[in-house]
């Protein structure tokens, strides 16, 4: 049954930087139009931060509202200000349901809807370390989260079974209250133009996308490439992602290992389809914090074999030896060995790429995700 114009407000801390949208945000922004066209919902977005002038907004004018707060990841005392502004916007548009994304938006939304007859859906996108770490700041954040987002009208949806288990065990949310809806992607957007190997026999191109921060593990990938340089296939690494404060550490590591000419630091990349199309292998080297990494689904749809670490819901998308390889997190030797195996067997790598696209077409379509989210909403 269609929703016939029922309003749903999605709440984010931020949407993009320099026009580049993060994985969780991209998964949800892609979801909005199918929710409208297939199910009849009227989707709106509220953003705690300011508008990114380079973002191509996916909704009609007036459907994305910015609270224009200058925030860090903590937001601090501005949480109360954000909640007050969001509450005023709720009164203005009167949604039946508010759907928040990532911890800061979850807490602000919980405060904003307190005492109102509005269903609050909390979307669990990842397995962040603050949910388990023992320092006082993380304990305080967990206490605040439980207090704010644990209301009787709060419902939970997780992007992977691994996320459901992780959050239930660390935030004391009963697992039966969390529904799993795995990400889906618009498969036809991610269609390869080039087959592997993209550079013939001259060079193997290996890529990774993500912020250059320790938990994303690009240093492990750089060390794996250094091991390959000592007798394995010749590799060029292409690293897409914001450099932030720690980016220079990765540049120095590449230089120290003699890979200055083999590692390309691309910064934020807006045209991700062209990025994937230029790779022989896609790598997700993360140490922690992942949910169901959207990048591996996109690379698989582009018929690229994937080497990924065993974090979050990776094994829910990749069967090791079929669509690529799953290796232990933080293990440069295992990562390098998996890469070498793929690069020395181009026909096998191509078969894995084909298998990856078929897996996405079967299990990870945007239409399937939209249908499951709409059915979740309808359960009230």
Task: Show the helix and strand layout.
Layout: E1 7-12, E2 16-17, E3 20-21, H1 23-39, E4 42-47, E5 64-66, H2 78-93, E6 97-101, H3 103-113, E7 119-124, H4 136-149, E8 154-158, H5 161-171, E9 178-180, E10 204-209, H6 218-229, E11 235-240, H7 247-256, E12 263-267, H8 272-277, E13 281-284, H9 294-301, E14 306-309, E15 324-327, H10 332-343, H11 346-363, H12 366-378
Parallel strand pairs: 1-4, 1-6, 4-5, 6-7, 7-8, 8-9, 10-11, 10-13, 11-12, 13-14, 14-15
Antiparallel strand pairs: 2-3
Model description:
It is a single chain. This protein is α/β, with parallel strands linked by helices and 380 residues long. It has two domains: 7-184 and 365-378, Glycogen Phosphorylase B (Rossmann fold, 3-Layer(aba) Sandwich); 188-363, Rossmann fold. The chain has twelve helices and 15 strands. A seven-stranded parallel beta sheet has the order 5-4-1-6-7-8-9, sandwiched between helices. Strands 12-11-10-13-14-15 form a six-stranded parallel beta sheet, sandwiched between helices. Strands 2-3 form a two-stranded antiparallel sheet. α1 (23-39) crosses α12 (366-378) and α9 (294-301) crosses α11. The radius of gyration is 21 Å and the shape is globular.
């Amino acid at each position: 049954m269609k929703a016939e114009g029922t309003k749903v407000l999605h709440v984010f801390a931020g949407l993009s930087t320099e026009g580049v949208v993060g994985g969780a945000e991209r998964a949800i922004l892609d979801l909005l139009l199918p929710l409208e066209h297939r199910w009849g919902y009227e989707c709106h977005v509220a953003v705690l931060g300011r508008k990114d002038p380079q973002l191509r907004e996916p909704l009609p004018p007036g459907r994305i509202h910015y609270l224009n707060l200058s925030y860090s990841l903590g937001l601090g005392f501005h949480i109360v200000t954000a909640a007050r502004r969001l509450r005023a916007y709720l009164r203005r548009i009167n949604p039946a349901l508010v759907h928040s994304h990532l911890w800061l938006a979850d807490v602000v939304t919980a405060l904003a809807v307190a005492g109102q007859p509005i269903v609050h859906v909390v979307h669990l996108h990842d397995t962040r370390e603050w949910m388990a770490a023992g320092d006082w700041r993380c304990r305080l954040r967990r206490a605040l989260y439980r207090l704010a987002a644990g209301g009787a009208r709060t419902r939970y949806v997780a992007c992977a079974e691994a996320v459901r288990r992780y959050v239930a065990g660390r935030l004391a949310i009963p697992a039966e209250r969390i529904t799993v809806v795995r990400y889906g992607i618009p498969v036809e957007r991610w269609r390869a133009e080039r087959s592997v190997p993209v550079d013939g026999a001259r060079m193997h191109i290996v890529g990774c996308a993500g912020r250059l921060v320790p938990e994303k593990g690009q240093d492990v990938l750089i060390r794996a490439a250094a091991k390959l340089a000592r007798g394995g296939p010749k590799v060029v690494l292409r690293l897409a992602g914001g450099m932030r404060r720690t980016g220079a550490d990765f540049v120095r590591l590449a230089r120290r290992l003699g890979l200055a000419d083999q590692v390309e630091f691309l910064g934020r990349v807006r045209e991700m389809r062209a990025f994937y199309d230029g790779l022989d292998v896609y790598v997700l080297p993360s140490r922690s914090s992942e949910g169901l990494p959207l990048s591996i689904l996109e690379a698989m749809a582009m018929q690229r074999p994937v080497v990924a670490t065993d974090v979050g819901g990776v094994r829910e998308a990749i069967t090791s030896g079929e669509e690529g390889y799953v290796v232990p997190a933080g293990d440069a030797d295992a990562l390098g060995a998996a890469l070498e195996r793929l690069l020395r067997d181009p026909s096998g790598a191509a078969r894995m790429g084909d298998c990856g696209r078929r897996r996405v077409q079967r299990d990870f379509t945007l239409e399937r995700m939209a249908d499951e989210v709409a059915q979740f909403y309808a359960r009230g």
